[in-house]
């Protein structure tokens, strides 16, 4: 019993905290509109009851004067009633407009905060942890909850306050009337507000399934997957999978709502039957003693009280469900990244006199989240300043994972990575990233302008430098003059253009070249995989010229690039199996020599 009470109190506390967060966000996003909406909600709370009082006066005037007589009192009553009705409509329109403004600005504010927090994860831990990804998915759904919460908060607030004058009016007639009505509605209120809480519990249970459904939807609707989906005619099979996953997410919620609906309808019918008692009593006693106007007032108040409660339920259900979403958003916002871009009192990376960094790994151990087997177990490697190294090996050997560890995209489970003798785990990631230039294996096709693709947020780099870099990588046809740099690299934008796979790879190399001024370590992961053989050697040579005098690491399956570097390391299942110059490894006639011979024979044949 104690645990159930604690759980109930915890739920009420979380609900109140979520509503409090939403209110603070509303007044921060648009204080004027929020204040206006709040004022309109208060006015709307009393206007309906005031209109009922004026309506009673109007009915009494009509019943006393007869249908043919038109007196000053009747005119005043009619005008007053019309003014109150117009006032209700006007205030309702103002409330709707202000609430829309608040909702739009709140969604912008909380979406921006969520995006900023996602980018506070300066490693890839967020995108490689199913638990964190589930939390992110629920947080995205919670963003929409903020918008709906704007409507619900003002709607519920107005309805709650409007209950007061209606209850007072009925209390003055007979105190038991509002008590009977409210008691009859309590079960309906309780059952209705339980449903959204249970719905969100089901959403949490199916978060991983929902994420898989969203992945399939992305595959079926986005341009980057369109060619493969059509060539392999996989849309029907993928659609079947999507429908199956969508059903696994929505069907439990639909069954819950259906079960709840039957119970709610039964309780609502019983509640409505109870309403007969106060209405019958009013018809028998008030109409004969207090006049038609008073009876109409009481009858309208009873109906209004029920309508208010039902509207309150509609808004309240949305309020509870939206507050649950806000709670998930808040929970994700409280997750803490393992590392931050800036760290107080962090050691400064020493600058190497030759311009390149000496990087050493000691006892490196790393396992991907959810994986059973470690990628590295005690890996020890060193890269001398100013040297170039090629890392080769079969798929899954750990080549790309090693580069991710060296540039701080993932953190090792154990061991250290030292940069000119300083442990990089203690260094601010922002400083580390300023010393690195990277072309990743899966480079991004950003639908941005050419300038934005090259700068990636950097400032102070002149257009002439950007045009020079484009010429160096053979993309000078994209931009002959500075105004060409504003062309968007997407056919989905009017006036935009698209690139081939090889051109995108050259652009990724150009992006790294723009960032190369302060770089001490260059990491090229499959930098020529999308280039034709005629330009592969030329681009590889330019990359090594760009990094000359600084430390460079090249990951490649094309072993021709190994003839251009100072050192070759061959990995197999996370272990170094061969290490030396290209000529040394050929003389040893080991696995590397066999690979080189097979690949050369393929080209010769």
UniProtKB/TrEMBL annotation:
Residues 359-598 form the ABC transporter domain. It is a multi-pass membrane protein. GO terms for molecular function: ATP binding; ATP hydrolysis activity; ATPase-coupled lipid transmembrane transporter activity. It is found in: Cell membrane. GO terms for cellular component: plasma membrane. Keywords: ATP-binding, Membrane, Nucleotide-binding, Transmembrane, Transmembrane helix. The chain crosses the membrane at residues 34-54, 66-87, 149-170, 176-193, 261-281, 293-313. InterPro entries: AAA+_ATPase, ABC1_TM_sf, ABC_transporter-like_ATP-bd, ABC_transporter-like_CS, P-loop_NTPase, Type_1_exporter. Its main location: membrane. It comes from the Bacteria. PANTHER family: ATP-BINDING CASSETTE SUB-FAMILY B, ATP-BINDING CASSETTE SUB-FAMILY B MEMBER 6. This is ATP-binding cassette subfamily B protein. It comes from Actinopolymorpha rutila.
